């Protein structure tokens, strides 16, 4: 098991959270907490960069949904970027690819 690290970086119009390692039942709450602590500007974009995520279980998926809900409650939006093929398949099988905005690259944070 690889530990999860989450790095936040602010940008005009939004925030990027980079998740590195394993997102699972032992640490999914950390991603939720990072999103709660983030000061997302009204109408801002919360980008979760998953390019270095190595594993995600159902608790991780639940955390991603909670992060999306948090962003929308703040008047913003969530974008998941650089999602692995395995996670994309899981999102597709569960129908969450219709709910979560998944992109191949980090969008410009000044326009979404």
| Helix percentage | 25-40%
Tell me, rounded to a whole number, the average pLDDT.
Answer: 90
Helix vs. strand class: alpha/beta
Tell me the span between the first and last alpha carbons. 35 Å
Overall geometric form: globular
Q: How many distinct domains?
A: 1
Runs with pLDDT <50, length 5+?
none
Number of strands: 5
CATH topology: Transcription Regulator spoIIAA
- The CATH superfamily label reads STAS domain
Biggest beta sheet summary: 5 strands, mixed
Q: What is the count of DSSP helices, taking H or I runs of 4+ residues?
A: 3
Order of helices and strands: EEHEHEHE
- The CATH level-2 architecture is identified as 2-Layer Sandwich
Cα gyration radius (Å): 13 Å
Level-1 CATH class name: Alpha Beta
Fraction of residues in β-strands:
25-35%
Which strand order do you get reading across the main beta sheet? Answer: 1-2-3-4-5
Topology:
Elements: E1 5-11, E2 14-23, H1 28-37, E3 45-56, H2 58-73, E4 77-81, H3 85-94, E5 101-103
Parallel strand pairs: 2-3, 3-4, 4-5
Antiparallel strand pairs: 1-2
Write up this protein.
Belongs to the anti-sigma-factor antagonist family. This is Anti-sigma factor antagonist. Residues 4-112 form the STAS domain. With 112 residues, this protein is an alpha/beta fold. The protein has one domain: STAS domain (Transcription Regulator spoIIAA, 2-Layer Sandwich), CATH 3.30.750. The chain contains 3 helices and 5 strands. The protein has a 5-stranded mixed beta sheet with strand order 1-2-3-4-5, with helices on one face. Helix 3 (85-94) links the parallel strand 4 and strand 5 (101-103). The longest helix is centred in the middle third of the chain and has 16 residues, at 58-73. 29% of the residues are buried.
């Amino acid at each position: 098991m690889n530990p999860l690290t989450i790095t936040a970086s602010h940008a005009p119009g939004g925030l990027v959270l980079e998740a590195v390692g394993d997102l699972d039942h032992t640490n999914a709450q950390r991603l939720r907490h990072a999103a709660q602590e983030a000061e997302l500007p009204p109408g801002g974009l919360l980008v979760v960069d998953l390019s270095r995520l190595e594993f995600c279980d159902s608790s991780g998926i639940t955390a991603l949904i909670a992060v999306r809900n948090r962003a929308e409650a703040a008047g913003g939006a969530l974008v998941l970027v650089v999602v692995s093929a395995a996670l994309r398949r899981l999102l597709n099988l569960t129908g969450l690819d219709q709910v979560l905005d998944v992109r191949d690259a980090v969008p410009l944070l000044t326009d979404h």
